[in-house]
Design goal:
- With about 325 residues, the chain is an all-alpha fold.
- Helix content is about 65%, strand content about 0%.
- The chain has helices at about 25-40, 50-60, 70-90, 105-110, 160-280, 285-290, 295-324, and strands at about 140-145, 155.
- A two-stranded antiparallel ribbon has the order 1-2.
- β1 (about 140-145) and β2 (about 155) form a beta hairpin.
Length: about 325
């Protein structure tokens, strides 16, 4: 008799039951199976039905939700751990042979915590379309056929069916409550994560604010230095203008000195000519002229004294100009 307990789904459960046909994992699937179990240890919290939904999440991630049940996956894991412990610590005191089992080193890494984080982190949500409930087959009406003349006798088990319907309803309610509780836990975890991120962002904002204040202080310092440089530049420009004015005045004074030097040179030449005229040449002149000039000797002596003084003054003035 064919029993269609999962007629509301479109999966392979309509034709066969994974319990009756256990699926054998390949070596790659065993490795992924172990890594997912170790990396998602937080899903196996020990609370009611958490193990079932955790194994279903792992099987769905591996694409084996139509080939294995959560109980088969749990039993597979327990058998692997049992065999690993038997090889790791033999009970009879003999030395085990880890090389005889190809998954010994994989389980050793898993038990030592070296595989944590080696697989994606999953979330265990109830998914009824992918994992139909494996309830017990309902009892159906039985027809007992005796001799042809005897009528058919039907044995009704409506009481059991009602009880199982109540159990299914309570199971569905329990799954719904479990789903709500899991969603609440997930939301609490996300809220705590957001609070931690907010605290991190607040700390980063404080660091940025401190850096902004430091930059503002450095900017103000640079502005003050630029203002000082501008003041120094203006002072240099003023000093340069003063130097230019002094250079112009010196050029004018130098021109005046040159003019004075030329005047002194002309005066010297005139004095030399007068000295030559008043010198020995005057003795060879006729006696009559000397007698006429005898009355002017006193005036000439005075003129010669004045000329000597003028010459000395001119010499001193010329030296003064040369030193300048």
């Amino acid at each position: 008799m064919e029993i269609n307990d999962h007629a509301y789904t479109s999966t392979t459960y309509d034709k066969c039951n994974p319990v009756d046909f256990p699926y054998k994992l390949s070596a790659e699937e065993v490795e992924e199976f172990v890594k997912l179990r170790v990396s998602n240890q937080y899903l196996f919290s020990g609370r009611k039905n958490t193990s079932m939904w955790a194994w279903r999440a792992i099987l769905k991630h591996m694409g084996l939700q139509h080939k294995m049940t959560h109980s088969q996956a749990s039993k597979k894991w327990e058998n692997m751990k049992k065999r690993y412990k038997g090889l790791k610590n033999p009970s009879d005191g003999t030395k085990g042979l880890p090389g005889a089992w190809p998954y010994f080193h994989l389980l050793d890494d898993a038990m030592e915590g070296r595989l944590e984080g080696s697989a994606p982190i999953l979330k265990a949500y109830p998914a009824y379309s992918d994992f139909p409930p494996f309830s017990k087959p309902r009892k159906r009406k039985l027809s007992v056929v005796k001799d042809p003349p005897a009528p058919d006798i039907e044995v009704s088990l409506n009481g059991d069916e009602d009880e199982e319907a109540v159990e299914d309803g309570s199971r569905e309610m329990e799954c719904a409550l479990q789903e709500l509780e899991h969603e609440r836990d997930v939301m609490d975890g996300e809220r705590r994560l957001m609070e931690r991120e907010k605290m991190v962002m607040d700390r980063e904002r404080q660091v940025v604010e401190r850096e902004r204040q430091v930059l503002q202080r450095e900017k103000a310092s640079l502005d003050r230095e630029f203002a000082a440089v501008d003041r120094d530049r203006a002072s240099l420009e003023r000093e340069r203008a003063m130097v230019d004015r002094e250079r112009t005045v010196m050029e004018k004074e130098r021109a005046l000195v040159e003019k004075d030097r030329d005047a002194v040179r002309r005066d010297r030449l005139a004095l030399e000519r007068e000295r030559e005229l008043a010198g020995p040449g005057g003795l060879s002149e006729p006696k009559e002229r000397t007698e006429e000039a005898a009355g002017d000797d006193d005036g000439e002596e005075k003129d010669s004294v004045v000329a000597d003084r003028t010459e000395q003054f001119l010499n001193l003035f010329e030296k003064l100009i040369e030193n300048f």
